[in-house]
UniProtKB/TrEMBL annotation:
Source domain of life: Bacteria
Taxonomic lineage of the native organism: Bacteria, Bacillati, Cyanobacteriota, Cyanophyceae, Leptolyngbyales
SUPFAM superfamilies, per database record: gpW/gp25-like
Protein name: Baseplate protein
All residue ranges annotated as the IraD/Gp25-like domain in the record: 25-115
Pfam family, one: GPW_gp25
Length: 127
């Protein structure tokens, strides 16, 4: 495994382990990076205004096929742009049966250096 490419850094949010900052390593660092990209609205970071995902522009959309398509597109575009360590294999979004204004975004991705496949479910609230 190429640890230099996959990276080691602080966890997000920062956590302590025996008084030391706990690192996020390799595939866990990638997973946390994906979560950070999706959780950051474009324009939110002063020094990197184009970083993040335009997903937040859709927060007041109604739960419709059009909104779901826009969510999927926003997630794919941001991950392709901001996470070079992965190949995005598939992104789907389905309404949560228990919460009508919540979409469950299922992201399937391949970590390039290890050829390992993962998925991450990201909850997103509409309206």
């Amino acid at each position: 495994m190429d640890g230099n490419f996959l990276g080691v850094g602080w966890t997000s949010p920062v956590k302590l382990d025996k008084g030391q900052i706990k690192p996020a390593k390799y595939e866990e660092a990638v997973r946390q990076s994906i979560h950070m990209i999706l959780s950051t609205a474009r324009g939110e970071r002063l020094m990197r205004p184009d970083f993040g995902c335009s997903l937040h522009d859709l927060v007041f959309s109604t739960n419709s096929a059009t909104a779901i398509g826009q969510v999927i597109s926003a997630v794919q575009e941001s991950l392709i742009q901001w996470e070079p360590r992965i190949d995005v294999l598939d992104v789907t979004a389905v309404p949560d049966a228990d919460k009508p204004n919540q979409l469950l975004i299922d992201i399937r991705y391949l970590v390039r250096t290890t050829n390992n496949r993962f998925n991450l479910v990201y909850p997103f609230y509409l309206n």
